[in-house]
Amino acid sequence: MIPLENSLAGSVHENYDLLLEYDLRIVGEITLRIRHNLIGHPGARVDDIRRIYSHPQVFQQCRQFLDRHGDWDLVSVTDTAMAVRQIKNRQDKAEAAIAGKDAAELFGMAVMEESIETNPRNFTRFVIIGRESMKNGARQKSSLIFSTGNQPGALFRVLQIFADNHINLVKLESRPIHGKPWEYMFYIDLEADVESPDFADVLKQLEGSVEYMKVLGSY
């Protein structure tokens, strides 16, 4: 399960790029309410803190709280659980982490302040990935990656196919193509099962209008 989008910080671009790079399928999605907490050593005080560890996305989601402590050093790590483990191993009461309560309980650390995210409506959309598509279950949504030629109206012609077939797009995002300056790949989420027989004609139209296309999955 990987995060793709946060309601405060936006898209997790590196994970979109990884979906293009690896031969994996999106087989489901889930949206979770995210609560961030300041976690430190038992007995430590907020006034003692000088350095904070967490994921870069978390720093963005807690920006207002962190702005009130402009003298703190922010150290980025790969995930929030690692941040808590790191401050535990370093045994320095001037260091703290931003993570969930479960991580504090797991490593025997203390929650110093709760729910420090900027906006209480902080949600993250996660996708469930696997090597193969799920054989059973309803599929109301699909995700695609495609690129178009660099000609006027190229993207419009692709989007027109969805409009003509009454297919609703719920997300459209561009990402630079590595090694090709100023050329872009487009990621879309749409409300349809692109792998169903009913979608075959639309898929054929799309394939004829793009230079590259990859179906990330229907779920």
Shape: elongated
Distance between the termini: 14 Å
User: For the report, how would you describe the main beta sheet?
Assistant: 5 strands, mixed
| Count of all domains | 2
Number of strands: 13
Regions with little confidence, pLDDT below 50 for 5+ residues: none
Portion of residues in beta strands equals 35-45%
The CATH superfamily of the largest domain is known as ACT domain
Structural class: alpha+beta
What is the CATH C level class of the largest domain, in words? Alpha Beta
The portion of residues assigned to helices is: 25-40%
What gyration radius follows from the Cα positions, in whole Å?
Answer: 21 Å
H/E element sequence: EEHEEEHHEHEHEEEHEEHE
What is the annotated CATH architecture of the largest domain?
2-Layer Sandwich
The CATH topology of the largest domain comes to Alpha-Beta Plaits
For the biggest β-sheet, the strand order reads: 6-5-7-4-8
Report the total helices: 7
What would the average pLDDT be, to the nearest integer?
93
Write a concise keyword list for the protein shown above.
219 residues, alpha+beta, Alpha-Beta Plaits, D-Maltodextrin-Binding Protein, domain 2, 2 domains, five-stranded mixed β-sheet, 7 helices, 13 strands, elongated
Structure, explained:
- The protein is of the alpha+beta class.
- It has two domains: 2-31 and 124-218, Alpha-Beta Plaits (2-Layer Sandwich); 35-121, D-Maltodextrin-Binding Protein, domain 2 (3-Layer(aba) Sandwich).
- The chain contains seven helices and 13 strands.
- The chain has helices at residues 13-21, 56-61, 63-67, 80-90, 101-107, 154-164, 200-207; strands at residues 2-6, 10-11, 25-33, 37-40, 51-54, 73-76, 95-99, 110-113, 123-130, 142-147, 169-177, 180-190, 212-218.
- A five-stranded mixed sheet has the order 6-5-7-4-8. A four-stranded antiparallel sheet has the order 2-1-9-3.
- The longest helix has 11 residues, at 80-90.
- The two termini are 14 Å apart.
- 23% of the residues are buried.
